[in-house]
Amino acid sequence: MDTMRDRFAPVVTRLLDEDPRVAVVLAEIGRDGFGEALRRHPDRVINVGIREQLLVGAAAGLALTGMRPVVHTFASFLVERPFEQVKLDLGHQNAGAVLVSAAASFDWPAGGYTHMSPGDVALLDTLDGWTVHVPGHPDEAETLLRHAVAAGDDKVYVRLSVQANRKGRPVDGQHLRTVREGRSGVVVAVGPMLDAVLAATEDLDVTVLYATTVRPFDTAGLRRATESAGTDVVLVEPYLAGTSTAVVNDALADAPHRVLGLGVGRRELRRYGTVEQHVAAHGLDASSLRARIGAFTGLPAPA
C-alpha cells in the first residue's frame, strides 16, 4: 500500500492543473515530488529553501493576494519552528492556507527528537479558527486534501503519517463515523489509531467512533453516541495524550461523565528504535490499549 505522503504530490499536482488559485510552497522537503508540476506551473510551485519562517510568511503573502497556498514540510518544521508566523502571518492577518505535514509524532525515529512533533495539534489548539484533519489511510488523505484546498480561504492543517489503517473509510471532513456500537462506553479512535482500537475493543461492549477531522470536533455526533453507550469516553489520539479532552468535556458539560485521554506521552524516548517500538512504548498498541480501556470502563477481561 502506498503512503499518505505518496498521495500528496500527485493530488496537489492535479489541483494545480484544475485551479489557478492553488500554489505550492515548499522548504526543500518534498520538492522531488513536484518536478513535473514545476515545469507546468513555474509561477505556482515555490521552494524557499531551508527557511521555515519564510515558508509560512510566503504562504500568507500569497493568500493575501487571493491565492490558495498549500504548504508542506515535516510537522516539527511546519507548526513548531515557525509558530510565530503561523500565529501572526496567518492567524492575525486572517489569511488562509493549507498546511500539510509529514513525519507526524514519530514517523522517522532515526531523525531524532528534532523530527518528532507529538504536540502539533495541541499547539494549534491555542489559535482560533483552524480545521484539523487526521486521515487514517491514503484514500482518506486524498479526500481530505481536496476538502482542505476547496475550503474557501480557511486555515486548515492536514496531518499525514506513515502509520495507516488497513482500509480506508468514507470521510466527509466533518463528522465522526460510527464503526461499532456498544452500551458501556464510547471510544473515539483518531486517524491511524482505528485498527489498534478495534483490535483492543473486540470483546468489549463499547461504541467505537472514528475521527478523521478533530477540529472542529463533532460534538453533536459524540453526544448522540453517549445517549445509548453512556458517558464514559476514551480518546485514542496519535499525538499528545489528552489533546482533545477539553473539547469532549465541553461537549458533555451538562452531563456527568468521565474522560480518559490516551496518546503520545510527554516523556522523551531517547532511543531511535522503530515506529512500532515507539507505539508500544507509549501504550498505543492493541494489547496496551485493551488493558487501559478495560480498566477505565470496568469491563471484564476475556476468560
From TrEMBL:
<dbReference type="Pfam" id="PF02779">
    <property type="entry name" value="Transket_pyr"/>
</dbReference>
<dbReference type="Pfam" id="PF02780">
    <property type="entry name" value="Transketolase_C"/>
</dbReference>
<dbReference type="InterPro" id="IPR033248">
    <property type="entry name" value="Transketolase_C"/>
</dbReference>
<dbReference type="InterPro" id="IPR009014">
    <property type="entry name" value="Transketo_C/PFOR_II"/>
</dbReference>
<feature type="domain" description="Transketolase-like pyrimidine-binding">
    <location>
        <begin position="2"/>
        <end position="167"/>
    </location>
</feature>
<dbReference type="InterPro" id="IPR005475">
    <property type="entry name" value="Transketolase-like_Pyr-bd"/>
</dbReference>
<dbReference type="InterPro" id="IPR051157">
    <property type="entry name" value="PDH/Transketolase"/>
</dbReference>
<dbReference type="GO" id="GO:0000287">
    <property type="term" value="F:magnesium ion binding"/>
</dbReference>
<dbReference type="InterPro" id="IPR029061">
    <property type="entry name" value="THDP-binding"/>
</dbReference>
<protein>
    <submittedName>
        <fullName>Transketolase</fullName>
    </submittedName>
</protein>
